[in-house]
């Protein structure tokens, strides 16, 4: 892995390029990692992956623990690793132990030996040795070390213990000298400003290629996040990439980018797709979201629910100006029909659109950063969405 910060802007955010041996082209950051189940997006078939924007869509996030149910790690190693097994030779794979969609941290289940995870084989405690062995067999491009993530409501003592354990597990993983990928040191600390900074300082001392920031989206107050992110980012070296889990909403993505985060997971896309929602918010490069008269809003313009009966005869695409495979080939009425007959193709087509739309959102953000107008873009984006929600409430 090679990461270069092209430019950091005083107006917020930074532009970088991530080069991975398996990817034919560098991937510009800030970027989105596609959430997967056993190496592939939840609903998108391998032959449709190529319909997504290139090279933006060539970063996949996996959980090594998903593979405990199938082939043994040694068998995956003999095949040639995950890239060979999945025939994803031109994709970058980032491994994070916890699947943030399927598994919440179990703070009571963790011990000094390792954290506890919900796996296909039940809840298991994973130690550093077993984890590094899995990583060495699967050979991802990037992998995050084990972390003792805790929710915001645990005691200060338990939160301090989580930092101590996370740093110790980092040292254990590095000492085992894994023969695969670039190591991202885990940073935790819950909602405690001092513990977050302490963990970041300790991890920054280690010989790692980047940083994975965990423990967000676990009950911390929204107003706490800017200070927590600043406490972490101010300590970490600028020349190394930063990846985060737990920030998924567009407003949260913008907040993370403003703080200096480079890589984000896409659990938000999965949750929308599972609920039958399609992203429809504007990709205006000025951040403006809507052009509507007060009290004339008939629907949520940020997303639409394609399960709703109103779309049963709608022969238009999800978005008229969208170039994704779904919008070029199918209508709202067809997707609504697929949902009504419980056909999985509904989720497939919807995930393609939502993933494409969110990748385009990141492109628009990168252009705003390059033009030095990210702060204005973020402010306009958030304000227009807030006004829209207030108008909806007034019209209800």
Automatic annotation (TrEMBL):
Its cofactor is Zn(2+). It is found in: Cytoplasm. Zn(2+) binds at residues 322, 324, 327, 353. SUPFAM superfamilies: tRNA-guanine transglycosylase. The keyword Cytoplasm applies. GO terms for biological process: tRNA modification. Binds 1 zinc ion per subunit. One of its GO terms (cellular component) is cytoplasm. GO terms for molecular function: metal ion binding; tRNA-guanosine(34) queuine transglycosylase activity. Its main location: cytoplasm. The keyword Cytoplasm applies. Pfam families: TGT. InterPro entries: QTRTD1 (IPR028592), Queuine_tRNA-ribosyltrfase (IPR050852), TGT-like_sf (IPR036511), tRNA_ribo_trans-like (IPR002616). Heterodimer of a catalytic subunit and an accessory subunit. This is Queuine tRNA-ribosyltransferase accessory subunit 2. The lineage of its organism: Eukaryota, Viridiplantae, Streptophyta, Embryophyta, Tracheophyta. The gene is Vigan.06G001400.
């Amino acid at each position: 892995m090679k990461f270069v910060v092209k430019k950091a802007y005083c107006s917020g955010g930074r532009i970088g390029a991530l080069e991975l041996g398996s990817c034919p082209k560098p991937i510009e950051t800030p970027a989105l990692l596609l959430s997967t189940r056993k190496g592939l997006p939840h609903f998108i078939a391998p032959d449709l992956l190529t319909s997504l924007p290139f090279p933006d869509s060539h970063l996949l996030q996996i959980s090594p623990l998903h593979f405990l149910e199938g082939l043994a790690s040694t068998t995956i190693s003999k095949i040639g690793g995950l890239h060979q097994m999945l025939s994803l030779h031109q994709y970058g794979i980032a491994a994070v132990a916890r699947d943030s969609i399927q598994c919440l941290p179990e703070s009571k289940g963790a011990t000094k030996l390792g954290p506890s995870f919900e796996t296909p084989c039940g809840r298991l405690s994973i130690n550093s040795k077993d984890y590094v062995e899995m990583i060495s067999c699967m050979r991802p491009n990037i992998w995050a070390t084990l972390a003792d993530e805790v929710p915001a409501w645990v005691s200060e003592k338990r939160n301090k213990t989580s930092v101590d354990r996370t740093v110790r597990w980092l040292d254990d993983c590095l000492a085992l000298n894994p023969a695969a990928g670039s190591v991202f040191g885990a940073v935790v600390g819950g909602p405690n400003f001092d513990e977050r900074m302490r963990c970041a300082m300790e991890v920054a001392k280690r010989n790692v290629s980047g940083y994975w920031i965990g423990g967000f989206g676990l009950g911390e107050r929204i107003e706490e996040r800017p200070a927590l992110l600043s406490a972490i980012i101010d300590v970490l070296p600028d020349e190394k990439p930063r990846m985060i889990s737990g920030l998924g909403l567009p407003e949260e993505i913008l907040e993370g980018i403003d703080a200096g985060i480079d890589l984000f997971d896409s659990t938000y896309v999965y949750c929308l797709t599972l609920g039958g929602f399609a992203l429809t918010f504007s990709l205006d490069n000025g951040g403006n979201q809507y052009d509507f008269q007060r009290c004339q809003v008939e629907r949520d313009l940020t997303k639409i629910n394609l399960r709703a009966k109103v779309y049963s005869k709608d022969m238009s695409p999800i978005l008229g100006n969208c170039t994704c495979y779904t919008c070029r080939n199918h209508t709202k009425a067809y997707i609504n029909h697929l949902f009504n007959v419980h056909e999985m193709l509904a989720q497939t087509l919807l995930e393609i659109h939502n993933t494409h739309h969110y990748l385009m959102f990141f492109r628009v953000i990168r252009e705003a950063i390059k033009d030095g107008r990210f702060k204005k873009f973020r402010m306009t984006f958030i304000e227009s969405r807030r006004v829209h929600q207030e108008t909806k409430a007034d019209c209800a």
